[in-house]
Amino acid sequence: MRPDADLLVLGGGCAGLSLGMRLAEQAPAAGRTMILEARTGYTQDRTWCFWRLAPHRFERLVARSWPAVAIRSKQRSVKVDCRLTPYQMLEASPFYAEAQRSIDRSQHVQLVLGTDVRAAPRQVAGLWQVETDAGLLTARHILDTRPPRPPRTSDATLWQSFFGQEIECAAPAFDPETVGLMDFAEARTDDVLFHYVLPLSPCRALIETTVFGPRPLAVADLAAAQAAATERLGRGNAFRVLRAEDGVLPMGMTACFPTPGPGYSRAGLMSGAARPSTGYAFQRIQRWAEEAAASIRQGGPPPGHEPDPALRRAMDRLFLRVVRDHADRAPDLFIRMFGNADPARVIRFLSDRGTVADCAVIGSTLPLQLFLGEMLKGMVALPKPLRETA
């Protein structure tokens, strides 16, 4: 029986569309791909930011670039010159539109909107069967970019929860040349709360309240802090809310979600797309999409996200444990990192491009006793392997 597709992608978010764009650019020999997305249409629901370390395929879609970022606490502030590697913002709407245009031009990649998966895919006679509200579909391979399940506290070392609003003030309130990367209004003992400010003009900015904490938070949990942030950072000016966005990202997954069989792979935020210590995901997804498209072009299945190199994994794990167990010290840790090391090293490290020398220099900026203590605690604790979760 001829399947409906060679590859069925479940989920047309950033990961699914990024792969779809690459496959649409390839010859039909790569096979037929069908991307299923439950949404009936796309909206401006996300903003992705990253440092521009090299030319990239989305240059013309970049909405804003900044030559400086700032990290602030009540005790100290650091402003980082990043003119050589500007901090860039890509809005979701033009990305979605570009992906749809690319896929629409293809004869062998199809994006199907408004289609929901009703049951877990199952393998029958060497093919995967997926029951959808539009009928039964079959494929040789499945790439599942959907979250395996709603976030649970125990699934990650920490969770990054955020709620942001793009506001327009009645009078100038923002420095349009400097991103407020982390603005710590207060040091907290149970979690880390800061505000993130993307200034779009002197009167307009995206202000986000972000929490690194032990459990995933809802918008309602962040609403009061967000209201206080817009009042303070908007300098008390009258303002109107233009739009809002929110999300929850894992920081150091502790749960492992196995695939149900050969020819089935996972990708996306809950499957390794986000950097554990930062939550940055867009550039990592683009690198994965290139690798996955190459694998498909060579006749193989799409791979999942590759684990980070051992040194980066070890540094991220240790840093997350320190932040979890010493949340009140977090503002000082981030300011030390940016204030005491060459910004180029920090930016490379945060962008997954750090060298061994970069890692060593960044490590030297942090309080040795605090990290050694956390390392010793980890050595005496019983090992906790990743839990396989169906």
Structural overview:
The chain is α/β, with parallel strands linked by helices and 390 residues long. The strands form four sheets. Strands 1, 2, 8, 9, 10, 11 and 18 form a seven-stranded mixed beta sheet that branches. A seven-stranded mixed beta sheet has the order 6-5-13-14-15-12-16. It has helices at residues 14-24, 92-104, 219-233, 282-297, 310-325, 330-340, 343-350, 356-364, 368-380, and strands at residues 5-10, 33-37, 47-51, 62-66, 68-72, 77-81, 87-91, 109-113, 122-124, 127-132, 135-144, 156-169, 178-183, 192-199, 204-213, 239-253, 255-256, 264-266, 387-388. The chain folds into three domains: 5-46 and 89-148 and 257-297, FAD/NAD(P)-binding domain (3-Layer(bba) Sandwich); 153-252, 2-Layer Sandwich (Alpha-Beta Plaits); 310-388, no CATH class. Helix 1 crosses helix 4 and helix 5 crosses helix 9. It starts with a strand and ends with a strand.
Supply the key terms.
390 residues; 19 strands; FAD/NAD(P)-binding domain; seven-stranded mixed beta sheet; disordered C terminus; alpha/beta; Alpha-Beta Plaits; 3 domains; 31% strand
Radius of gyration: 22 Å
Q: In terms of structural class, how would the helical and strand content be classed? A: alpha/beta
Please identify, by name, the CATH architecture of the largest domain. Answer: 3-Layer(bba) Sandwich
CATH fold call of the largest domain: FAD/NAD(P)-binding domain
